[in-house]
Fold this protein.
Amino acid sequence: MMKIAEDDLADWLRLLLVDGLGSMTAQKLLRAFGLPYNILKQSHGTLASITSDRIATDLRAPPGDAFQKQMDLALAWLNSPENHVLTLDSPYYPQFLLSTADPPPLLYAKGRIDLLNGAANLAIVGSRNATAQGISNAEQFAHELAAGGMNIVSGLALGIDAAAHRGALAALAKNQVCGSTIAVIGTGCDIVYPARNRELAHQIAQEGVIVSEFHLGTPAMTANFPRRNRIISGLAQGVLVVEAALKSGSLITARQAAEQNREVFAIPGSIHSPLARGCHSLIRQGAKLVESAKDILEEIKPLLSVSAHSLCSAESSSATSCTSVESASVEVSDAAGTSDVQQRILTALGFDPCDLDTLAARTTLPIAVLSAELMMLELDGRVEKRPGNVFSQRVH
């Protein structure tokens, strides 16, 4: 599996390490000028037309000590075969995540990156201070869903998250499935937090994958954990909330899942339990009440035949075969030009603005595939995204 080239890594880090340049500003620059190499060649005035004068100045400045430190860390980290850096233009970047409003421009991943494009990913989230019953429910649901062929996505926190990861790994250990588990963390990918989950993290890195948008060496900071929740939901077909108080990060994840057009499931609990109130609130707002893993599998499995990627890639480190999930393969464009799939999209788009649903009907492509290819065409300067999720070809 080819890793990111050193020059490309340097360009992406120079862009993303600019102080105050968040993922949304990075996306504006990428849409306007293409890949970081092109952004860094622009004049100050051209950059300032898209972003602030200070950020334009910083983008034009020579790389500083912070860049060199991060570059050295990344290159040393990439020496391990299980470590990867995935950028928006990488063929291994998670396609479901590309279809969201705020995909991270760069991801660090440790382990089986094929799982990030799994056709059957389900997030399980809940309270860090879970009850014994909540822990049991999370483990049991994760085990049965993994046995049904699903990859379990969670956040490696104490409580429900750790239980969900353990349940999926227990199913995998029995060689029942090719489903595994994905941990989305709020620190650098070279840091384990909380320390109590160190052994679990090592097991996930071997059997599943750990992923983070935060640069190497980033410590645990409160603001980072709600932000990583959009990745948890964005990687998955749906989100199951096991236990949650009325004010909790799990409800943030559920809200983001709904905004990303994902399924939201919730397990009901005792009317006397504070940790059931969040789930009950979600159910009142339209989340699907579930009592068994079968309830979720019946909802999710019909969607899998139109998913962007196979659950098990040919490059998976696991030798277990996966036959229960249908999938459509995605052609990846090479450096020479436009792929057949992208040309199909451009032909269907024509020269008049077109919304995503209409374009999906014209091309008969799954939404996840279509969104991913449109992002690539945007980065290439071939397509322009307009307000209202409407697209048009750029006229040069």
Summary: Residues 305-336 have pLDDT under 50 and may be disordered. The chain has three domains: 1-79, 113-306, 340-393. Residues 6 and 75 are 8 Å apart (CA to CA).
